[in-house]
Amino acid sequence: MTRALVTGASGHIGANLVRELLDRGYQVDALVRITSNLAGLDGLDVRLHHGDILDPLSLDKAMEGVEVLFHAAAVYVNWAADEADILDPAIVGTENVLRAAARHGVRRVVVTSSCNAVGFSDSAESPLDESHWNTELHLPYVRAKVEGERRAWALAKELGLDMVTVLPTGVLGPHDYKITPTTAYLRDAMAGQGPILPGMQNTVHVRDVAIGHVLAAERGRAGERYLLGSESIPHTRMASAIATVSGKSPSILNAPRWLLMAAAAVIETIAGFRGVEPALTTAMIRTAHGRHIYFDITKAREELGFAPRSTEETLADTWNWLVRIGQLSPNLA
After folding, report:
1. I need a labelling partner for 165 at 20 to 30 A (CA). Which of 70, 126, 214, 247 fits?
2. How many whole angstroms separate alpha carbon 92 and alpha carbon 82?
3. Does the pLDDT of residue 332 top 60, yes or no?
4. 144 near 86, Cβ under 8 Å?
């Protein structure tokens, strides 16, 4: 029985990955922080290790006997009072994890990166693939994913690690207890309380992401990146799919860039005085406005056998999950 370690096992991707590994007969170890919400792991046959990727000494016990490492730990937020809270886990934490893997002779490493490390297209006619790297690092989360993955590749070469990276698009679906920014964006749209962005969209079911991680471990070519997404669709189809599951048609954020930048600047200033997270930042506008979340996932389909479900099925499962945990009210219409 293959022993696998999942860092960030209590998170949205991590909890679903643990389930997929157990279903496939793996023996699973889970690295979680002492403060982690473990609701996503309740009732699962896993061996828990309390540690922190920023504490190298806490990683050695978790790494003992591990054959396959899935490094999924990350801080997924768009803002922090101190950007180091986002950057350090991605860069320093990744280095700590990979050095521990090398010390313990882990034979295969799968690092969870993000489509943010690829970037977003300026054109609805030009999807991006794994050969592209994002150079617009306005948001600290985007910078963290780019610099974290680049550091991982440098270390894999230095340490001789057999490594692949996977780059999920907008991850949605069950076992998201913390409510990631991606889930929050769709939750608000489904509740009729938030707009969606114009342009091409790409979301992916979290269980497909979990499957993609395992396929990358078992079939991926060392040294390769794999985008894990579903079909890229126009915002009109996304809006229609949201309306079908929720009964509410989301608005489209069509305001001009200058107006959004001005509004974001005011919101940031007020939030700064109050010491709270701004709902909108200029970095968010610079990152997303006029861009398309448009990716070519041919490589994962052909090399891994990755076969994601439709956007409509993903949104339906996300709706059901959010209703189940009380984030949305049932549609009784």
Report:
1. 126
2. 15
3. no
4. yes
Catalytic residue numbers read 145
Q: In this structure, what is the dihedral angle of CA atoms 5, 7, 10, 14, given to the nearest 10 degrees?
A: -80
Angle at 130 between CA 28 and CA 312, to 5 degrees: 70
Report the alpha-carbon distance of residue 127 to residue 120 in Å, rounded: 8
- Residues 71 and 106 sit within 8 Å (Cβ to Cβ): no
In angstroms, the CA 85 to CA 75 distance is: 8
144, pLDDT greater than 50: yes
Query: In 3D, which of 236, 281, 229, 217 has the Cα closest to residue 118?
Result: 229
Structure tokens at 245: 């599951």
Pair of tokens at residue 64: 């003992």
Domains and CATH numbers, the chain: 3-180+203-232+294-312 (3.40.50.720)
CA distance 240 to 219: 36
Q: Is 212 helix (H, G, I), strand (E, B) or coil?
A: helix
CA 33 – CA 202 distance, rounded (Å): 31
What is the rounded CA–CA span in Å between residue 51 and residue 56? Answer: 9
Of 171 and 284, which is predicted with more confidence?
A: 171
**Inter-helix orientation angle 311-324/181-190, to 10°:** 90
Res. 142: pLDDT tops 90? yes
Burial class (CB in 10 A: 0-12, 13-18, 19+), 99: middle
Percent helix, strand and coil across the chain, each to the nearest 5: 45, 15, 40
Contact 50, 72 (CB under 8 A): no
**Res 218: pLDDT:** 98
Question: What type of residue sits at position 147?
Answer: E
CA dihedral sign, ordered 290, 135, 237, 328? negative
Alpha carbons 141 and 119: distance in angstroms, whole number? 12
